[in-house]
Structures are given as C-alpha cells and as structure tokens.
Batch of 3 targets.
Target 1
Amino acid sequence: MPFLGQDWRSPGWSWMKTEDGWKRCDAWSQELEGENSQCDIGHGIILNSEDEEIFSNEEHEFASKKRKKDHFRNDTNTQCFYRENWIYVHKESTRERHGYCTLGEAFNRLDFSSAIQDIRRFNYVVRLLQLIAKSQLTSLSGVAQKNYFNILDKIVQKVLGDHQNPRLIKDLLQDLSSTLCILIRGVGKSVLVGNINIWICRLETVLRWQQQLQNLQMTEQVDSGLTLSDLPVHMLSNILYRFSDGWDIVTLGQVTPTLSALSEDRQLWKKLCQYHFGEKQFCRHLILSEKGHVEWKLMYFALQKHYPTKEQYGDTLHFCRHCSILFWKDSGHPCTAADPDSCFTPVSPQHFIDLFKY
C-alpha cells in the first residue's frame, strides 16, 4: 500500500487561499481563527439559528466531518444551514468538479428559512416540504433532515402567530405523521439516519403541532375601519374569482351570508373547473342535477380526487439551462448567456425533487 501521508486513512488536508498564498487549514487552531476573521466571506455563508457564528465554506466542510453527536439530537437550537439564493446543480463528476449535488445538499444550501417569511414563497416551500415528507424523507442526509424539521418548526410557529394558511400546514403535518408512523413501525431503524428514539421524538413533536393547530382559535379584531362585509357585491365576487383553490372559496363563503351566496355561483365553479381540468376529464366525471344542469361545484371536488390541480405560486425557483444553476426568481444569478431570459425555466416543487433523481 503506498504511503499517503501521516495517516493513510486521512482524506487529506484542507487548504485556504490568503494574501500570502495557500495555507493549510487546521480547524482547531487559534491561528486560523485569527486569519479567518480577516478573510472576505462570499455568498456561501453558513449561519446557525442565533446568527452568532460565521464560517467559510472550507471550514464547514472540514467541521462537518468532525461534527459532534449533538448534530443528531432533536434540538432546534443547534441548526446549521446555508443562506444562498442560487446553487450550481451538477449531476456528474468532471475534471474541474468532483461529486454531484443531492436533494439534501440543495435543501441545505438554498435559503428556505428566509423564504417562509415571504408570502409569495410560503406556499411553494410548504408544498415542497409536503412532497419530501411523502417520499423523499429518508433520502435526506442527517443534517438535511434536521434542517427540515427546523424549518417546519418555524412554519408552525408562524402559523400559530399570524393565523394564516392553517389548512396547508394541517395537510403537511398529516402526511408527515403518516410517513413517520410507517417508517418507525413498518420499516424500522435500518433505513433511518440517527437513533430510532430521535424519530420517535420527532413524531411526538408533529403530533403536538397537530394538536396546537387543532386548538387554534381565530380571534376577531375590532377595527373601526372598513371590513370585507362593507365592500360592494361586485367587488366581493371579483375576489372570489381570483381564488384558484376550491377549499378557499368554501372557507370564505362561511364568513357572511352574502359571501355564502356568492360562493355557490355556478359560473364561478365552472371557471375553476375549466382552469384546472380538461374537457376529456369532464366527460369521465360528469355530474348532473335533477334538472339536467351540470353540478360544477361537485364536479370540481370529484375531479380533484382523480387528477392533480394546477399549482400557482407568487415566486418560485427557476433553473437556468445554460448555467445549470437553480435560483430564486426575484434574486437572479450571474448568467453568462447572451439572452438569459430564454434559458430560464420555472421549477415546480415536484420538478425540484425530480432534478436530483439519478
């Protein structure tokens, strides 16, 4: 066996570039900490939950190999994740770059923690978490799984605080609890990263969140200004026509008798069916009333059980086919194409997962 270094099992030294040239990194030396404090930090910054410690990418890669058991504990106060607006998606090794980008790595590096605070990206992130909970949870690395539950905790606390979008979170937690029950009871610890007790603790946390959302009470705010009931009927009707989810229409119709009547408009449900489904699907699930009229509202919920509905998001991730870069639409990325806009493709939550299937 050839001699590779001081320890033949060692993966090699980590190096960093300084003004005096390349120097070897020693994660535990005080000299390195003094040098790093003077180095510029690029877009690949890693922050913990308290934003108290800042490390460079090279240090994090070295420290991740030496991480302590605390990284595997179910403690949301020790989370560690990147805050990048774009990442390079490489699926194979080249002469310049080794390895490939995984779903867990992309989930760690992209800025999902801040995205949930943006109302345009909130639904997108929730839908992505729901798809991961259904089929991709065990494919995430240990750190990615930990960040997954950390971000989920932030989402639940946000909903409990502002009372917005509780139905979406209830559906997400329902799918996640079902998956965790199957993994813990049916599959076992052979496919789970970390101690089985951690997963049991996570399941108990999800059940507690479900109970908190179940007990959530919407408080009525007393305001002397105009309310939704004060708007003219035609404006209320226009608001209902802006919804793309039938359950949102049903929920809004429970607010006042006027909205209840408007939410039963046959033309409203017809437009909704035509937006989400095609004519061939109508013929397969046609529902008629006793008078021979099409029951568009019943048809919508019947078709929803058999076919996926179109998804609408205010801001989504985009993929640049020229640069192979995944980025948030509003943030952009340093594209080298002559016509960058022609290379951009919107990435749905399902497409995001499909990007990392090899």
Target 2
Amino acid sequence: MIEILSSSQLPQARKAGAFVAEILQTMKQRATVGTNLLDIDRWTKEMILGAGAESCYVDYAPSFGRGPFGHYICTGVNDAVLHGKPHDYTLADGDLLSLDLAVITGGLAADSAISFIVGDARPAESVALIDATERALAAGIAAAGPGVRMGDVSHAIGTVLHDAGYSVNTEFGGHGIGSTMHQDPHVSNTGRPGRGYTLRPGLLLALEPWVMVDTDELVTDDDGWTLRSATGCRTAHSEHTIAITEDGVEVLTRI
C-alpha cells in the first residue's frame, strides 16, 4: 500500500517526527560508557508510554523476524546494523552504537536512526562509516521532491556509498510510512536514475542508508532479529522520515 497524506495531516506527521527525534537525542546523551542496552530500551519505553504514544516495535512480527520483537528501540553495537534486539550488554569506550526507532503518535508513524561512537575514542574506521551514511542520507533527501523518480533518490544514496568504497546490500532499505511503519514504496540504497515510482506531495518516506566496512552480506543472531555483518566488521545506519511537499521536501525527524 502507498499512502498519500492530506495537507491537514502534515502537522501531526511533524509532531510524530519531532517526538522520535527527541527520544533518539535523549538516548544518545544517556548512552555513555557503562550504560546497559536494556536501560536504553527501558528509558525509551518510559518516554513513549509517558507521552501516550505507541511503539511500532513491541508487537512487530514480520516474516523475516522471530517475533514479536518485544522491545521499544533497536540497539545495534559495532557489527550489528539492523533490528538490533536490546540485551544485557554494557557499552564500552569506542563502541559504535546504532539506535533505530519508530513510534506512532496521533495516528501517524515516524522512523529514524542514528549512529554514533560511545565515549572518548574515535576509531577512524567508525568515523568514516558514520560520515558516509549521513552524507548518503543528505544526498537522498536533496534528490527527493515532487515528480522525482524513486530511482533518482536511490541513485543519489548509492553514489555516495559506492564512492566512499562500500558495497551496498539491497535486501533492506528505506520505505514508505504513514499510518503504519512499513509501507510501499521500497527505497533501495542504490538504483538507476529515471526509474521507479514518481514521488507525489503527501508521500512520507523513511530513507535509511546503512553500510558495512568490508561486506554486503548479513547474518542473523540466535535471537532471530539482530542482523550483523557476515565478517564481523563494523557497521553504521542513518535514517530520517521525510515528507514530499508541493514545493520540495521536509525532514520530519530532525531536531
């Protein structure tokens, strides 16, 4: 299903996006050396339920997971890049942490992800990974707009990632979003310009470039959810929910 919002729904979409961004920034500030991933999940739960909002993850049970997910936020550490299931792990200096969050408030969902390094260490490889996904996300946003083909957005994202020296996995990418978290159209992180669905005002998209240092292959943890790099290399993931408007693009999940 591809859902097109009316102009009257956009203010609520903005509120949902701002709330997701607020939670992620709060968790980033709290995620210090010695923080447990289960604490991050608990704090996220408190913020969501305290606002009368709804988690997109707790009861989420797609075909690719061993569901329901049962937690409020995805926490991927180092080689874990997608669907990281919170568990009893204490963050260490230099860990690369990816947080992915989707919440419904006022009937609309927003989805965003950030990656950052915990503590004072700044491993060059991790810095480069995060930078590449953030630049690819910015390129995808810049390419989007009314009348643009989806392939143009995917091409913009993929060009940045490939030019940075990373291969691109096409199993998982961005997606449409609205009254539910995952909708059509799919947004691949690489593609051919001039192809695919034509973007329309009222369409919400979650763009989410992610990469791994030296592979494009994933393996799944025994928890049935957490996806890691097949080689154990580090990974990074950046995501924003955007709205296609009459005259361009609005980023809904940016502080």
Target 3
Amino acid sequence: MFVTLYSEVRMSIHKITSEIFLEDDKHSEKLTNNSAITQFIFKCPSYMIKSKSKSKIKAIEYDEDDDLNIDRDEESVLYIEHSVSTELQMVGLQVWRGALLLADYILSNPDLFKEKIIMELGSGVGLTSIIASFLAKEIICTDINLGEILKLVKRNFMRNISYVKCKFHIEELNFLNLKWSKSLEEKVNMTDIFIAADVIYDDVITNGFVTTLEKLLSKEVPKTAYIALEKRYVFTVANMETVAPMYEEFLRCIQRRNLNWNIEYVKIDFPRFFKYERVQHMILMKIENKINIKDK
C-alpha cells in the first residue's frame, strides 16, 4: 500500500492536474475540450532584451568578475496551450516544474546552448523548446503523437513565434519504438544536446526512456543530455519508509544496463526566471558518454 507524502499533484480517480496550474499567480483562459491557454511570465536576462532600434537579441554580457550579467527588470510572457487535467499516459499535455527548472538553466547558461542543435525528448507542450530556441541554432521537438500533441507543440510555437530565433522541427519519437524514421535518424546524428523534463513517471516509460537515451548517446561524437525531474515521494506502509519510486527506477534502469555514462548532478541554485516553487527535491542531471568525453 502506498500513501502520497510530498507530491502536490491533484489527483482524482481518473485525472491528474499539475501543481503548476494550482498556483495563484497563473492567468489562464479556458478553452473547449478541457484545455486552456496559460500565461507563463518570466524575467528576461540582459542578453534577451531587444534594443530599441534593432529586433535582434543583444550580445551576451559579463560583469567585472566575468559572471553572466543578469538584468531582469523586463518581463515577458509565453502563452502556452495545454490540457487542464489528463490521465496518467497523457500528462505530457500539461506543464510540470521540471520544464521550468530546465528552462531556467538554459537561460542561466547561454554559452552552453548558444548556436547548438538541440533535441527535446518528450517535449510535451513545447515550453522548454521554445525557451531553447532563443539561443539554439536549431531545435527539434519530439514526442509520441498521442492526443495530437505534435499539433499542439506547433500551435504553441506559432503562438510564441516572436521569441523563436532559430529553425524548429517537430518529429515523432516513441520511447517504446527504436525503429526511427530516416528523417529522425538524420536529426539525431546532427544533434549536440538532448534535453528532457519530467518524462519519468511510469515503469514502462522510464525503461523506454533509458533505452532511447542509450541509443542517442551511443554515437561516436560528443553529445550531452540534460534531464530535469521532480522526485515524487511516497510513504510505504509495508516498509514504513519514504521512497521516490520512479526516480529510483530510473537509476535502476541505468544500473541494469551497465551504461558507460558520466552522470553529474547540477546544483539548482542558478537564477530563477519563471514564477514557480523550486522545491528541494527537484533534480537536474547532466549525462555524457564516457567514451565521448575522452574524445573532447
């Protein structure tokens, strides 16, 4: 028997609602078919603020200590269409804290993502990919095409097109099917960085995600993955202890496959640009293939 301890996700018998949409500062417009458009307000780092005379992004600036100059007086907003609540297998139609954590990290570290080809795995509604498009050379959004999610990603990109500064593509990628299209294979080969947020929520999906990541990082060229997730704890009456079952299953999947990865836990004390509660059990992992590291 499991009893939820820390998770703030609102659940009914059949539906789940992300904690993001339960926060008081979110402004949403309800649509039909259990969907809405929510405003995600964020503060702009100085390099994103448009000059008064030009429509391009300002150059990245540093202070006298060679630290990133973050002048966040100007606010912007993303308009994201999403489902209000979903069944477990359709949670990608919502926005979760991991997506905002990863977006914050990208905005805080422009040199890591600038002019890179980036592929998001399980991109959901596309929020993190839209943020990455501020800096990337090219962005590729991927997800399984359930609930017309790929069409939803495209609508969100077009809704926020004024922020998109690079080419973007939307491709189907199913963690449970490693037979990829030729188009997807080509895009995987040219990708520099893979990103994923809150895609670990089910045993089968978690195993499929690790298997997919193994294939993505098996290329004989340097590639990096950034994985953001929230450890959701439950209390087990049988063992009288708290566990984070899906996070622990993720680690077990990596261990079982004996993967030759270098895993680094990134400190999450970087600036917060979006408005959300950055809870202490959030995790950001940087994963690289050790063989690739030697070749750098």
